[in-house]
Amino acid sequence: MGSISRFHCDYIDINRDKDWDDLFATYWKSWKDPLQMTGLLTFPWLGEGNTREEESYEAAKQAYLELARQNPDQRWVRVLDHGLAGGPRVVGGGAFTIHREAAFKGGQAPSGPKSNTVDGDHAPPDIKLPGLGYPVNSERNILMRQLYSQMWSWRPRFMLNRPHMYGQALWVIPAYRHLGAAVEVMDYWLKEADALSLECFLEGSAIATPLYLKKGFVLLERPVMVFGHFPSNNGKETPSKEWDDLAIANGFAQPFPSSPVICDSTFSSAYHAPHLLLICDGIRTIMEFIDIAIIGGGPAGLTAAATLVRQLHTAVVFDNHKYRNAKSTHMHMVPTWDHKDPKEFRSAVRENILDRYSTVKFADVGVSKIEKKSDSHFHVVDDSGKEYNFRKVILAVGAADAFPDIDGYQEAWARRIFHCLFCFGYEDRGAKTTGVLVVPPIDPGMGLYMACNAAQLSDQVTLYTHGNDQFTNAITPLATAAKAAFKVDSRPIKRFVDNGSSLTIEFVDGSSKEETFLVHNPKTSVNGAFVEQLGLELSPTGDIKASGPFYQTSVRGVFSAGDAVNPYKAANAAISSGCNATVAAIAQLQAEKYGIPAML
Q1: What are φ and ψ of residue 72, in 5° steps?
Q2: Is 415 exposed, middle or buried (0-12, 13-18, 19+ CB in 10 A)?
Q3: What is the residue-wise DSSP string for 309-355?
Q4: Would the CA dihedral through 233, 239, 242, 247 be positive or negative?
Q5: Hey, which residues does 215 pair with through a beta bridge?
Q6: Using CB atoms within 10 A of its CB, is residue 123 exposed (0-12), middle (13-18) or buried (19+)?
Q7: 409-519 maps to which CATH number?
Q8: Contact 114/48 with Cβ under 8 angstroms?
């Protein structure tokens, strides 16, 4: 992964056109891609198919520049990437304002004029910021004003008139969000504040809390931003559909009180903290959506990650480190990885992705819950309780084996009992005798096919039906007619004994037989509770129902790959389906993003 040493942070000269243009371009991009709720409210027309994006961009750039010039205590910072062949590039920045003693009063915007007093002490301020291009008293206008009014009412209650440095904005363009650029801006700001012996204050979303706490901020409280019924719909108390879409659908669904006092004066004990951080539960919904949740870190999930990064999509790979082939020390049929350890493969793929790409994160934790909100919104909770919002989901969760109720089977699994003779068996070629266990889900037809695979590697093959008369009667004439030395043994099996290089089969009648290996594929089930949570259909074999080549499940927006969907469970099949499922998920994502008919 990229090192933060490649980044350099400094103040810009706001009077230099190029400095301002380069910095504001990253500010705009960080809000617009993906567009967040506050970006939608602050920058007009972006929510209208970007038809007036250029106009909105120029208006915003000029308005912010005027505010910066009006306030000599406002500092604008850029972070440069010096690790590029073409020279340094601005990839993010920040805006910080020094508030000297008695310079800040409640109800005043951080860098704009005082508010009107229309709605009590905490009225929406008459701010001179981009976004008021929305018609006066329109719901977008009111919601935006209320958003900033509430945010700006917190700081004076905490800081009173003490001098402090206020973090107004910190942003990084999407491709750099996991490379340390944001940390560079934060470090620069705190060094400046410490040099001036100033306290720091910022409001942040919950997604950034770990970074802020790591930098010495003290978490004060989690007040709720209040959005809900607003008497703006022609004087009616009930919100219009537009208001629903903007507020309630975005998570701001709490009743709106007559006097929205969201904080009280119970924070005096925190006034002596060096840096203060306010996290608002209600603003959590303003966090960016991540494009794709990849559940599972095996070959399918890793391939999904390696595929989507090529189109600059974002993802989190959730890996609980539970793998069906955990006992296997070798993998096969994957070019350049033949007969190598699957652990090394997983580690190398992850390292390769992180070294070259920046839009994927790996979370070494499982997922406990997935809830579909819409075709392009999935709420995910990991095993630690952390919450995420994704646009699409790829289930690469693998499968769990349900072994036959025969003593010793589980201990011999993947050691002397093989599920696939493309994955195993070659190393035992030339064996005198091998066996096939013909018990469900293996039926006589599949048992004979497995026997043919075994015959390629051994002189004699015995099909064991474990006392199943129906299977014995069905398979015996077929085995006799085959052009191979197939035998059928119907004796009930008592247990298996793994000898290391061979397997002993002990029968109920006290006799035994030694085989070099035994072939059998046990029943499997999809890992996790996601089939039930999402209402997914299953195939007759118990896999997630999702046909190739694109592996869209019965629930739109949810794709599956690997052992969870393939009846043929092997690394190469997982890799293929992981790639195809991701291409399909991206096709849906991009159709929604660019407003074209969906192919899938």
Answers
A1: -65, -15
A2: middle
A3: GGGT--EEEE-----TTTT-S-B-SSTT-TTB-HHHHHHHHHHHHHH
A4: positive
A5: none
A6: middle
A7: 3.50.50.60
A8: no
Q: Do domains 289-400+524-594 and 409-519 have the same CATH topology?
A: yes
Give pLDDT tens digits for 484-527: 889 999 999 999 999 999 999 999 999 999 999 999 999 999 99
Distances in whole angstroms, Cα of residue 559 to Cα of each of 213, 288, 289, 419, 578 = 36, 22, 18, 26, 9
Q: Name the CATH superfamily for 289-400+524-594.
A: FAD/NAD(P)-binding domain (3.50.50.60)
Chain segment 89-131, per-residue pLDDT in tens: 999 999 988 887 654 443 344 333 333 322 323 333 343 444 4
- 73 or 231, higher pLDDT: 73
- What kind and span of H or E run contains 99? strand 89-99
Q: H or E segment at 489? A: strand 486-489
DSSP state of 492: P
Contact 162, 273 (CB under 8 A): no
Within a 13 Å sphere around the CA of 51, how many CA atoms are in the beta-carbon half? 3
What mean pLDDT, rounded, does the chain reach?
Answer: 79
Strand order in the sheet with 486-489: 417-418, 518-519, 431-437, 458-464, 486-489
β-bridge partners, 9: 79
- Domain assignments of the chain as residue spans, ordered by start: 7-103+122-255+272-279, 289-400+524-594, 409-519
Distance, CA of 246 to CA of 227 (rounded, Å): 10
- Interatomic CA distance for residues 37 and 250, integer angstroms: 8
Contact 524, 399 (CB under 8 A): yes
Residue 417 · residue 385 · CB < 8 Å: no
Q: Tens of pLDDT along 205-256?
A: 555 666 677 777 766 554 444 444 343 334 433 444 444 444 433 333 333 3
Q: Give the 3-state secondary structure of residue 525.
A: strand
Is residue 141 classed as helix, strand or coil in its secondary structure?
helix
Which residue is listed with tokens 């039926």?
Answer: 443
Instruction: Please state which of the four CATH numbers 3.40.630.30, 3.90.1150.10, 3.40.640.10, 3.30.1490.480 is assigned to the domain occupying 7-103+122-255+272-279.
Output: 3.40.630.30
Residues 441 and 465 sit within 8 Å (Cβ to Cβ): no
Percent of the chain at pLDDT exceeding 90 = 48
* Cα–Cα nearest to 413, from 495, 341, 498, 340: 498
Both tokens of 385, joined, read 């309780």
Q: Quote the tokens at residue 239.
A: 């919100």
- Rounded (5°) CA angle 435-449-414: 50
